[in-house]
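Issue: ligand-bound run for NAP - logging full I/O for the record.

Environment: standard queue, default settings, no custom constraints.

Inputs:
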Amino acid sequence: MTLLNDKIVVITGGSSGIGKALVEAALARGARVAVCARNIEKLQSLFTTSDKLLCLKADVSKEADCHAFINTVTERWGRVDVLINNAGISMRALFEDVDLAVLKELMDVNFWGAVYCTKYAMSAIRNSKGVIAGVSSIAGYRGLPGRTGYSSSKFALQGFMEALRTELLHTGVHVMWVAPGFTASNIRNVARSNDGSAQAESPLDESKLMSADECARIIIDGIEKRKRTIVMTTQGKLAVWLNKLFPALADKIVYNHFLKEADSPLKRGGKG
Ligand SMILES: NC(=O)c1ccc[n+]([C@@H]2O[C@H](COP(=O)([O-])OP(=O)(O)OC[C@H]3O[C@@H](n4cnc5c(N)ncnc54)[C@H](OP(=O)(O)O)[C@@H]3O)[C@@H](O)[C@H]2O)c1
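Outputs:
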């Protein structure tokens, strides 16, 4: 029997990538899973109907949706043991070119979405002495060029989580975040460009990245072991370490890395 057996696990953004894999991994460990996404038809089509799975439509950037999502879970199952704030979007555009609405949208989904869901699940998780997890990114440790809004949202998420962890130190509630490295998913296809439209094509060879299943397995293991934080992939660990010890060198290495990316915005407009 696993630690998640018969626990109530709430996951945001389960219609694709890491979120979909998290749902499958939690179900495989015997949990009852409540999951949301905006595209409810897609979400429902991905999983076999089961009394252990609750698929709900919610846009986490809307406080009322988050409130209704969590309320439905507690009304149905009476408890929340684990909340995984996973829903997220990315961007690829230089700050000087991008509409500010893009940065606001990223903060609304990646930061405020996690804050709203955590707020409404708070008393249930306090009662269960459960786990609040945030899916951050290496971009939450190291600002990335062309991703000002994304890095801001993930730094904000980690600051929120760290402060909350300290507030809850003596309550039995565990607060943690995980920072996946590049992971194969849909995130780069729907990443916002200058005007907020999806960039459509990933600049990376997704087949060479960590799989979403592997990423989800590491996250679920980390939740069961109540890890403090998890930084994934060799490249990700190196980036976090280098940035801590040699931040000026990290600026140059990170710049050069993203300059080489296919169709890098750093090249556009002669900025390379
Ligand atoms: N893939 C990577 O390389 C990578 C690396 C580091 C961190 N991460 C983080 O991992 C998390 C999952 O990303 P992913 O790579 O799996 O991306 P993905 O394949 O694009 O999946 C994102 C999920 O979030 C949902 N979502 C987006 N906006 C939402 C909203 N406003 N309300 C509710 N759900 C929303 C999407 O569903 P709908 O569109 O149906 O709403 C989808 O299910 C994100 O927080 C991301 O920042 C990813």
